[in-house]
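Supplementary Methods. Inverse-folding protocol.

Structures were first reduced to a discrete structure-token string of length 153. This string, shown here, constituted the complete conditioning input.
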């Protein structure tokens, strides 16, 4: 399934059906883009939202290193952005926006974890529902925008 179809199926509210600028036709085989599996990158970040919610709301124990979460070059998307993509697409404004949002996403995730560990559950929930969720959505949107700008015609 193409990236945009995947996003629509998961009803993230990021892609209006009538917005043709953000909705290029994507062939199902194009989920792999220049060394990155786009659906997996998006799913990995969605999984963080679920994991943080389980830690905060359900009291699930975690052994996550907050410092590792705060850096944006450890996940598959971050490694790709700091590696292969930087050399090939670093000149694109869409790349710069995606990289910036991705870094802010990781900092927000670390802040949620830090608040949770400091027994500030209400603050952690507030951060999870607010800045973290907004940045999660923004990373996905910027990934789609980047893909639309960078993909071969």
């Amino acid at each position: 399934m193409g990236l945009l179809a995947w996003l629509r199926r998961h009803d993230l509210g990021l892609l209006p059906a009538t917005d043709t600028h953000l909705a290029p036709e994507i062939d199902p085989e194009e989920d792999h883009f220049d060394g990155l599996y786009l659906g997996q990158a998006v799913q990995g970040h969605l999984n963080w939202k679920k994991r943080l919610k389980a830690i905060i709301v359900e009291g699930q124990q975690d052994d996550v290193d907050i410092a590792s979460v705060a850096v944006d070059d450890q996940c598959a998307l971050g490694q790709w952005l700091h590696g292969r993509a930087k050399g090939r697409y670093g000149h694109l404004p869409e790349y710069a926006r995606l990289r910036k949002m991705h870094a802010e996403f990781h900092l927000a995730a670390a802040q949620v974890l830090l608040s949770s560990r400091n027994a500030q559950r209400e603050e952690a929930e507030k951060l999870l529902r607010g800045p973290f969720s907004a940045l999660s959505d923004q990373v996905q949107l910027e990934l789609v925008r980047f893909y639309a700008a960078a993909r071969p015609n």
